[in-house]
Design a protein that fits this description.
The chain has 96 residues and is of the alpha/beta class. The protein is built from two helices and seven strands; from the N terminus they run βαββββαββ. A four-stranded mixed β-sheet has the order 3-2-5-4. The protein is globular, with a radius of gyration of 13 Å.
């Protein structure tokens, strides 16, 4: 289960309202090299074939099911003009 703080929800909804089309929040992990993984968080206009749609507090989130083991129990927050991913069991480098 993913949670989104109230502040992050406000910022995400504001960003979505500035888009001309309905958007999703794409959330997952990326690998930049052999053992380094980073969180990925962005707005998307479409869903890929592999992604599933999850709804958290009314926000539609796109995720590849294979990322679930890294994103499960994470919290998306917004602090000091940037998104922060809080993970009680960190296995991934912070969002950069």
């Amino acid at each position: 289960m993913i949670t989104i703080t109230k502040k992050a929800q406000e910022v995400i909804r504001d960003m979505q309202q500035n888009m001309e089309e309905e958007t999703f929040l794409r959330y997952g992990v990326t690998s930049s090299c052999c053992n380094q993984m980073n969180y990925s968080l962005n707005l998307a206009l479409y869903k890929t074939e592999l992604e599933k749609v999850y709804v958290v507090d009314g926000i539609q989130i796109l995720m590849n099911p294979s990322d679930a083991r890294y994103t499960d129990h994470t919290e998306i927050d917004f602090q000091d003009n940037g998104f922060v991913i809080n993970n009680p069991n960190p296995l991934v480098s912070p969002l950069q």
